[in-house]
Amino acid sequence: MTTIPLELLAPAKNTDIGMAAIDHGADAVYIGAPKFSARADAGNTPADISRLIRHAHLYYARVYVALNTIFTDREIPLALDIINTVFDMGADGLIIQDAGLLELNLPPIPLIASTQMHNNTPEKVKFLEDVGFHRVILARELSLQEIEKIRLETTIELETFVHGSLCVSYSGQCYMSQAVAQRSGNRGVCAQPCRSRYTLTDSTGNRVVDRKFLLSLKDLNLSRHIPDLVEAGVTSFKIEGRLKEMDYVKNTVAAYRIAIDQFIKGHPAYGRSSAGTATLAFSPDLNRTFHRGYTSGFINGRKEKIASLDTQKSIGQPVGTVTAMGKDFFQISNRTLVNGDGLCFFTREKNLVGFRIDQIRENRIYPNSLKELGVGTPLFRNHDHAFIRLMKKNAAKRQIALEISFTQEQNGICLKVTDENGNQSQYEEPLKFEAAQNPSRMKEQIYTHLSRTGDTPYTVIQVNVHPEVPGFIPLSTLNDIRRKALENHTQIRFQAFPRQRVQLAPNSVAYPETELTFNANVLNGYAQKFYRRHGVRHVEPAFETLLNATGKTVMTTRYCIRHQLDACLKRPEHKHLLKEPLRIDDGRHRYRLAFDCKECRMSVILEGLCRE
C-alpha cells in the first residue's frame, strides 16, 4: 500500500548544521542560496550546498534552496545563473518570492512559493498551483479551518511553519524596517524594529503602556498539533531558524522527529518521506534551547495572547524559585543546575535580568551577580551549559536498514545488498572454494563480519548465508568484500535517488485581483510582465521604490494590540477601554494604529518622527 509521505523540514544556516539536521531525523532541509535569500546573512557557497545535497540524498532527504527576495532588473540575470547552478548540483526545490522569475527560462526544478508571497487564501494558493508552483508555504497566521479550506480547493503540496520565531506582520507585508532603516525585509536585510520597545498612547496623549515590546511575539510551538495539521492537509512541517545555531537545530529536529513518528505509528496511511532511522544520544526538550516563551499562534483561532511584552530575548526553561539568600549566594530546590549555566528573572519593573552561575557548593549557588535577586524570585535557565555541551558532540547517528545475502560458490563469493527503499546491488569477489575446518564457526564469523558497518550510514538487520556449510574465508577478505559491497551499494542509491523534475509551462490564468498595490512587492519589469499576462491592469511599484514612506501602512498583522491588552471591541468580557486613535512610538518614530475589527486585522501606519 502506498503511504502519504510526511516531511520534517529543518533550517540550515550552513552545511554542517544542515547535515546535522539530516542526521537527527530531518526529511529535508532548506538553505540560503549564495545571494538573494530572505536571510542575507545566511548565504552559502555552491560547494557547500553541493556537499549538503550529497549527504541528504544518501538518505533520500531533500534540499531546498531559498532564493526568496525580490530583485531589481539588473539582478535577474545573476539570479538565473544561481538557479541553474543549484539545479545542476541536484537541489530538489527552489523557494522564491519574486514572480518575475517565472518569466525566465528556468530549469525543471520544483518551485516553492515562499511565505513571503503571503499565501493566505484558497484563491491565491489555487493561482500559484495553476501557474506551475509545486508547493506553497502557508501564511503563519492561518487557522486549521482556513488551511482545510485551502486544501479542499487545491491539490498543491502544503507546507507550514510549526516551530520558531514569529514575524508579527504577515510575511512579505512588513515594510517597517525599510521605512525607518532603509533595510528591506523583502530584500533579506530586515533590521527587526518589531523587537524594539514601544510606548502606546491614546487620543488624549495618555501613556497606556510605557516602553514595552508591544510588537514582539512569542515563538511558535505546534509540536502537539501534528495530527491536527495532517488532518487539515499539511504534509510538510517546517522549523524556522536559518540564523539559529547547531544546538537549536539538533534539539528541535529530534523533538519533532519523535512527534511525527508517533503520529505515523498510529496512522499506517502515512509514512516518512526519507530513509534511515536516527538514534539519539539525548532526550530532546524544546524548553532547553532558544525561545521567547511559546505560543500556538492562530492555529485554533484568536484565543491566546501571543506577544512577549516584557522581553524580546530568550526566556528559557523554568528552574524554580529562590528559597534563601546569603551574602554572595542563593539557594533553590533545583538540583540540575551546573557551573556555567545562565539564569534570568524579571525584576519588579518587569525587566529581564540575567546572570551566570560561577560555582555550586552543596546547596549554595554562587552567581557573578546578585543584583535585584530576592527570595521568592522565579528563575529561568536561558543558557543550559550541560545541554549545549552535549549538543556539540555527535548526539545522533542515522542509519539505513540493509539485508545482505551471502552466496559462496566454487570460484567466488557474491554479496547481494537490499536496502529499506528496495534498492538492490550485487558485488562479486573471485575466491576458490576451500573447505573449512569448523564450518559452524565459519558461518558465525560470516554473520558477524558482514553485520559490522562501523561508521557507514548503514545497519544490517538480516544476513542470509548460502550454502549452509560455507568454505573457509579469511576474515580480512570478509571485511574487504563487505566494505566494497557497501561502497558499491552507496553508488546505486545515489543513482536511484527519485529526483523530481517539473518543467514550467507559462499560461495566462487570471490572477485573483486586477489591481496591485505595493504589497505585491513588484520591483522589476519581469514581475510586471508576469502579472499583466495574468490579467492585472495596474501594478504599483514595490515599497522599496518610495522616496517618502510617511502616511504609508508599514505593517499589516493579525496580531492585535487591543486584544493583547484586554481591550478587544468584539469581546464583551474585555473591560479595558482605549480611546482612539492609538499610537505607538519607539522614541524616534511614531505610528498610528488602525483596526479592521471585521477582519480581525491591525495596520501600523508611519506618521513620522517623534517630536523633541
What does this 3D model show about the protein?
The chain is an alpha/beta fold and 612 residues long. It folds into four domains: 4-166 and 218-288, TIM Barrel (Alpha-Beta Barrel); 312-383, Elongation Factor Tu (Ef-tu), domain 3 (Beta Barrel), CATH 2.40.30; 397-495, no CATH class; 515-609, no CATH class. The protein has an eight-stranded parallel beta barrel with strand order 1-2-3-4-5-6-7-11, surrounded by five helices. A six-stranded antiparallel β-sheet has the order 9-8-28-29-30-27. 42% of the residues are buried.
Number of helices: 13
| Gyration radius, rounded | 28 Å
Q: Give the N-to-C terminal Cα separation.
A: 71 Å
Globular, elongated, flat, extended or rod-shaped: what is the shape?
globular
Report the top-level CATH class of the largest domain. Alpha Beta
Number of strands: 30
As for the CATH topology of the largest domain, it is TIM Barrel
Beta-strand residue percentage? 25-35%
Question: What is the makeup of the main sheet?
Answer: 8 strands, parallel, barrel
